[in-house]
Amino acid sequence: EVQLVESGGGLVKSGGSLRLSCAASGFTFSSYSMNWVRQAPGKGLEWVSSITSTSSYKYYADSVRGRFTISRDNAKRSLYLQMSSLRVDDSAVYYCAKTGGLEGSGDNYFDSWGQGTLVTVSS
Amino acid sequence: EVVLTQSPATLSVSPGDGASLSCRASQSVLGRLAWYQQKPGQAPRLLIYDISIRATGIPARFSASGFGTDFTLTISSLQSEDFGVYYCQQYNDWVPWTFGQGTKVEIK
Hints:
The complex is a heterodimer. Chain A contains no helices and eleven strands. By secondary structure, chain A is an all-beta fold. In chain A, the strands form two sheets. In chain A, strands 2, 4, 5, 6, 9, 10 and 11 form a seven-stranded mixed β-sheet that branches. A four-stranded antiparallel β-sheet of chain A has the order 1-3-8-7, with no helix packed on it. In chain A, β7 (68-73) and β8 (78-83) form a beta hairpin. By secondary structure, chain B is mainly β. Chain B has strands spanning 4-7, 10-13, 19-25, 33-38, 45-49, 53-54, 62-67, 70-75, 84-90, 98-99, 103-107. In chain B, strands 2, 4, 5, 6, 9, 10 and 11 form a seven-stranded mixed β-sheet that branches. In chain B, β7 and β8 (70-75) form a beta hairpin. Chains A and B meet through β5 and β10 of A and β4, β5 and β10 of B.
């Protein structure tokens, strides 16, 4: 059974930094692209960032590019999101999500999700 | 960026009735569309991918169709556990992957 467990969320002041982690189990972590998706309180889902299996490629939403950095450690089966220059509108539940298809398939839907970690940015 | 527009925003349905949810894309996404269900306080769950393929463990009362820019998720005979918010997501256009704003299915 696929399990994704996020951690690292919390309360931070505007301009501050935070590092999110996602521990993965139940699948061959090193074979799949991984993603971060966020959801502001009472709002819809927003894709934030993706990283390919060997970290060769990293992609970001315009809203976070230059401030957030995605990374992974395949030996530790872990995904990370380093967030800096945080803004109030970055406040959200951040979900770690596994890409459904194998790389190169184009199947970039999200077939497994963690329970999420809440990030609150105060002014 | 592909914009997905879901309708209606809210759908009131009696248990046992059917429901149809719409997702319209601002440009063709070919067959690369997925549907998710989210219940309050929970993470989203993948229901459907590649327009109409049910994810593992998803009951047959969930079906979906469409192609290009117009897609439909149909839930036949709604059960109590089916109430929640449903999102469509496209993955044809390269990043950003985008989601619709959601349709809330509530008990009538």
